[in-house]
Amino acid sequence: MLKRTITLFAATLTSLAFIQGPAVTLGLCNTDQAQASASKGDLKYKVPDGWIVEQPTSSMRAAQYRLPKAEGDTEDAILVLYYFGQGQGGSATANTDRWINQMQQADGHPSKENAKSETLTVNGLKVSTVDVAGTYTAEVSPGSGTFNNKAGYRLRAAVVETPRGSYYVKLVGPEKTVGKWDEAYTKYFKSFEFR
Question: What is the dihedral of CA 112, 118, 124, 125, to 10 degrees?
Answer without folding.
Answer: -10
